[in-house]
Design a protein that fits this description.
Elements: H1 2-7, H2 10-25, H3 29-36, H4 52-56, H5 61-103, H6 116-126, H7 131-145, H8 148-166, H9 169-185, H10 187-195
Helix pairs in contact: 2-5, 3-5, 5-6, 5-9, 6-9, 7-8, 8-9
Length: about 210
């Protein structure tokens, strides 16, 4: 392990990667964009989440798409830069920081989003070949059930298995932690799914009840 740390640029470099990842990940794009567009405080709308699915509940598809793109980018950018600068361990720590930042941003009292889009960005930056597989699984589940939460959980749980099959143990370990965090952040959704009360996505626009 010490050899891996030395190759990656040492502990200071790895800590910097984690902190930079956290800083970028903690930018609440959903909140900022909806306020900028005059759509109000996204935390007072729908589920109160700052992610793209809840932004869609404002009826502003463009804002939701922009939020999705930026949340993916804030996961992909630090991960790719950390990987290029410090190797796989640097990429993994930067990606972990980005997801933690999104889910627990200091600026919002550590109450953030659920990390799915940012996690997709981390996969893009860390193991880009896996992203199409995970994305297809997500789309298939959402298309069949119209439950975005279920698609998110299935995709998150598939990621470590896919990384392990690819032979990337470091990515598999990271994605296993991410999957645990995604499931934790979706615990209320899981309860509603079990009770049959979870909102369904309307492909015509706003999420249907």
């Amino acid at each position: 392990m010490s050899g891996l740390v030395d190759m990656a640029g040492g502990v200071p470099g790895l800590m910097l990667a984690l902190l930079v990842g956290y800083g970028l990940g903690s930018i609440p794009f959903g909140l900022l964009l909806t306020r900028w567009a005059g759509a109000g405080d996204i935390r007072a709308i729908g589920s109160g989440n700052i992610g793209a699915t809840n932004v869609l509940r404002t009826g502003r598809k463009g804002l939701a798409l922009a939020t999705l793109a930026l949340d993916v980018a804030k996961g992909a950018l630090p991960t790719a830069l950390g990987y290029a600068w410090l190797g796989p361990l640097g990429g993994a720590l930067a990606g972990a920081g980005a997801i933690i930042g999104h889910c627990f941003p200091v600026w919002l009292g550590f109450r953030g989003g659920k990390g799915v889009a940012t996690a997709a960005g981390v996969v893009l930056g860390m193991t880009p070949l896996l992203l199409p597989v995970i994305l297809v699984a997500f789309i298939a589940v959402v298309w069949a059930t119209r439950w975005v939460s279920l698609g998110s959980i299935v995709a998150a749980c598939l990621a470590p298995v896919a990384a392990l099959l690819l032979g990337d143990g470091l990515a598999a370990g990271l994605y296993l932690l991410v999957a645990a965090l995604v499931v934790l952040k979706h615990r209320e959704n899981i309860g509603r799914l079990l009770r049959g009360e979870e909102s369904r996505l309307s492909f015509g626009g706003k999420p249907a009840s």
